[in-house]
Design a protein that fits this description.
It is a single chain. By secondary structure, the chain is an all-beta fold. Helix content is 0%, strand content 64%. The chain has no helices and 8 strands. It has an 8-stranded antiparallel β-barrel with strand order 1-2-3-4-5-6-7-8.
């Protein structure tokens, strides 16, 4: 009797390039208790747009570039914030369509904001270690929805702390 081998499903292909766009809720505070979902005293919140570009080297590791910009803020639209980051992206496929990931990297933030009439509270350039985690769900072969929570910058004494929550769409090439 001759046994026929069953065809095995193809593993996901490493080397996948993607680009995406997200709506972001961001909060900046002089300590690490920023709350992106609520109003806190001594906190500045912004709504922003985040551009994402990434490359998956293998099933479990990728790299990502991010750029965010405030489009509306708590101070009658007076916010001027930009964030740029580069990340390693360890990831764990949970199913064929779902992926949990982390973000570990470096972020630079520039803010120019006249907070409650007090100059220089959130002004200037800050940079440092950045981290986060998220979930990606493939809607089709090329389109996925993602959400993540990212600490763009921690307060290491004398810097702003900024957190962000993102909800977006990615196109996988």
């Amino acid at each position: 009797e001759i046994k026929k081998e069953e065809p095995q499903p193809e593993p996901s292909t490493p080397g996948a390039f993607y680009m995406g766009l997200a709506v972001s809720a961001m909060a900046t505070r002089l300590d690490d208790r920023a709350n992106v979902m609520g109003d806190e005293n001594h906190q500045d919140r912004q709504t922003g747009i985040t551009l994402v570009a990434g490359y998956d080297f293998m099933d479990y590791l990728g790299a990502e570039l991010r750029a965010a910009m405030a489009v509306d803020g708590a101070n009658n639209g007076n916010d001027d914030m930009q964030q740029f980051g580069i990340y390693l992206k360890p990831q764990l496929p949970v199913s064929d369509a779902m992926n949990i990931y982390g973000l570990l990297g470096y972020s630079m933030i520039n803010m120019s904001d006249d907070w409650n009439g007090v100059n220089d509270v959130y002004d200037g350039d800050n940079d440092g270690f950045s981290f986060g985690m998220g979930l990606d769900y493939g809607v089709t072969e090329n389109i996925s929805v993602f959400t993540d929570y990212v600490n763009y910058l921690r307060n290491y004494g004398g810097t702003n702390s900024q957190w962000g929550a993102n909800l977006g769409l990615k196109y996988n090439f």
